[in-house]
Automatic annotation (TrEMBL):
SUPFAM superfamilies: Heme-dependent peroxidases. The active site is at H110 (proton acceptor). It is found in: Secreted. Ca(2+) 1 binds at D111, G116, D118, S120, E132. The record marks R106 as: Transition state stabilizer. This is Peroxidase. Removal of H(2)O(2), oxidation of toxic reductants, biosynthesis and degradation of lignin, suberization, auxin catabolism, response to environmental stresses such as wounding, pathogen attack and oxidative stress. These functions might be dependent on each isozyme/isoform in each plant tissue. Disulfide bonds join C79-C158, C112-C117, C164-C392, C243-C275. Ca(2+) 2 binds at D311. The lineage of its organism: Eukaryota, Viridiplantae, Streptophyta, Embryophyta, Tracheophyta. Residues 278-300 are annotated as: Disordered. GO terms for biological process: hydrogen peroxide catabolic process; response to oxidative stress. Its EC number is 1.11.1.7. It catalyses: 2 a phenolic donor + H2O2 = 2 a phenolic radical donor + 2 H2O.
Amino acid sequence: MRFIVTCFVIALSVLIAYYGLEYDHGFLRFAQRSPKNLTGVKVPEKSPFDDDEDDLMSLYMEDSDQSYSLHYDFYQDSCPTAERIITKRIREFYAAKPSVAPSLIRLLFHDCFIEGCDASVLLDADESFASEKEAPPNQSLKGFDVIESIKSELESVCPGVVSCADVLVLAAREAVLMAGGPFYPLETGRKDSVVAFKEMAERELPSPQATISVILARFGTRGFNERETVSLFGAHSIGTTHCTFFEDRLYNFSGTGKPDPELDTGLQQELKTKCPFSASAPSPGTGVGPSMPASDYGTVSSAGGNDGVIDMSYNNEGGEENFGTRYYRRLMQKKGLMYADQQLTGREETEMWVRAYASDTQLFRRDFATSMMKLSNYHVLTGPLGQVRTTCSKVLPKN
Ligand code: HEM
């Protein structure tokens, strides 16, 4: 007996020494190895999705806790065509207007980051609450009409069944796929909130001028580690950004009257021609840090105003297959657009993932898929909590 126990202890010690143990939400688990432990920039780390899509599926099924109210194919009996309708409609929207993809991915992030994926960002103001849409970080969000249009089709097929929160996560997944990103499995059964959280959106959504400390703190309180946070930023390899959000880096960084030294000089020149100085640029150097005022998001609206718009994909630089990767390569060349983007290279714990994703597209795709699944499942309402709205912009009338 003593021999068996001794063997067990030795085996456990070897495993701990090799993999390390870390504490994660009340559980001890083997830590993920960081890329700096391995040779070069290539990261042959075994990700859950290393082999093929079957592995990805099996991991997902294993992880499903039966007591958890989200289920795979939740609408199988109640609305069997729901997922197919969402997929088809997103493909049609994308064919007509590819910019719909980044808009929906950003919409998902802004919904899930504030009190979870409950479609609260879709609500208009009513007599009992203000709308999250009015919060400065949300004023340039787009894609509400797309979600509403899909929801209205679902209502005609199976009234009162499919939640707006599920429509949004499934639509965003299809958008990722359309934009050249990876597929990831999603459980469904989310419910919609009965309130919106405007003040929290103002306070908690990081500013484009947020420091790495603020970024990590905000993502960290939602359970995202450095690796997951960096991988999510890969979404910034598609879509557009208004000049307002990085103009200070071109003209007057931190009140110096000079450009940001962390911005490549060639890119500075290029951007200056596209973003001539505007007085509406956020006041640089003020408020960077935890108490960043929401007004640093300015008042950019979806109408755009006079503000120029920059294509974050640089015309799909590197090709479709480089969804994500091109973003990290640009960061390594000091070509991040927003201050917050470039901050990912400002600290070793995040920079090592930037380096890894810049050189290993497959690693990025697997990590991005896992992080998007995690984001889509963040703090959801299920079972008796919440409701299924019939119109995504309005809570159900009280009886
Ligand atoms: C610190 C974190 C982040 C900040 C400060 C930030 C900020 C911004 C800003 C200012 C824009 C430009 C909006 C405009 O000009 O209209 C933008 C665009 C975008 N963001 Fe982020 N973002 C962050 C994280 C994320 C994450 C985690 C995702 C997704 C997982 C994401 C997805 C996108 C997408 C796809 C766009 C393009 C939207 C479009 O073209 O319609 N962002 N972001």
